[in-house]
Write a structure and sequence with these properties.
The structure is a single chain. By secondary structure, the chain is of the alpha/beta class. It has 2 domains: about 1-110 and about 265-280, Quinolinate phosphoribosyl transferase, N-terminal domain (Aldehyde Oxidoreductase, domain 3, Alpha-Beta Complex), CATH 3.90.1170; about 115-265, Aldolase class I (TIM Barrel). The chain has helices at about 1-15, 20-25, 50-60, 90-115, 135-145, 165-170, 175-185, 195-205, 220-230, 240-250, 260-265, and strands at about 30-40, 45, 65, 75, 80-85, 125, 160, 190-195, 210-215, 235, 255, 270-280. The strands form 3 sheets. A 6-stranded parallel β-sheet has the order 6-11-10-9-8-7. Strands 3-5-1-12 form a 4-stranded antiparallel β-sheet, with helices on one face. The chain is elongated.
Length: about 280
């Protein structure tokens, strides 16, 4: 996993440093060692501290990070989250990339934690989706877990989810499930997305393992859960917002998925301040 992370972090660094950091290299001697403070500027949930640290390690193998915080901790405006020690060139050149990762991941974790609270005391679990930022999925799905949510399939190779266009291509839910079951590895569960009660019944008859109730109103969803009666795992999806979560949970669905966890989360603001040169190497 670390190799995959490093590859993506290096891509982000190359995006920001195509040749060199001309400003930093003009001003700072390559032998200078320094330290800088990582300051939190908003209340929220911390996620991505190790990724933040790794940016600087890839620029300076001797980079070190001191922190009393860890991913999943609550942070508040003004908190000194960490102190980073490294070559000054590494600190300055890696600053934006490191902050971009940390702010994005912490924002997602904060949003997730806020929604998870709405499901406390129920048996319904919060899931993410594949509506992630290109090349950021590994980091964004990790942030979901830090915030208390759960990961749906990581990519198209991880599980079978038969959606409306798959059903259209196969001709029916029954045929789509049959084809999927014949093709899938032994034991892989089959999920079917349905939009009405007739489709719920067809998915049950086809013996789908998981039935996703997509964009249903509360009453239809309630009837669907009653029809399913525990014969399949249930998931609710489609325009899920914070104000709907507790009501959805009362219906008794097993999972509720929300693309907004990744596509609509705001970043959590941090800054790197108080750079100090402490020596040379």
């Amino acid at each position: 996993m670390k190799q995959n992370e490093d590859k993506l972090i290096l891509q982000a660094l190359r995006e920001d440093i195509s040749n060199e950091d001309i400003t930093t290299n003009a001003i700072v001697d390559g032998n200078c060692i320094g330290k800088v403070d990582l300051i939190c500027k908003q209340d929220g949930i911390l996620a991505g501290l190790e990724v933040f640290k790794r940016v600087f390690e890839l620029l300076d193998e001797n980079a070190e990070l001191e922190s009393k915080f860890k991913d999943g901790d609550s942070v508040k405006e003004g908190d000194l989250v960490a102190v980073v020690h490294a070559k000054v060139r590494a600190l300055l050149s890696g600053e934006r990339t490191a902050l971009n990762f940390l702010q994005r991941m912490s924002g997602i974790a904060t949003h997730t934690r806020d929604l998870v609270k709405e499901l406390e005391g129920t048996n319904t679990k919060l899931l993410d989706t594949r509506k992630t930022t290109p090349n950021m999925r590994i980091f964004e799905k990790y942030a979901i877990r830090v915030g208390g949510g759960h990961n749906h399939r990581f990519n198209l190779s991880d599980g079978i989810l038969i959606k409306d266009n798959h059903i259209n291509a196969a001709g029916s839910i029954k045929k789509a499930v049959e084809l999927a079951r014949n093709y899938a590895p032994f034991g892989m569960k089959i999920e079917v997305e349905v939009e009405n009660l007739d489709m719920v019944k067809e998915a049950l008859e086809a013996k789908a393992d998981i039935i996703m109730l997509d964009n249903m109103d509360y009453e239809t969803m309630k009837k669907a859960v009653e029809i399913i009666g525990g014969r399949a795992v249930t998931e609710c999806s489609g325009n899920v917002t914070k104000d709907k979560l507790s009501k959805i949970a009362k219906i008794g669905v097993d999972f509720v998925s929300s693309g907004a966890l990744t596509h609509s989360s705001l970043t959590l603001d941090f800054s790197m301040k108080n750079l100090e040169i402490i020596g040379e190497k």
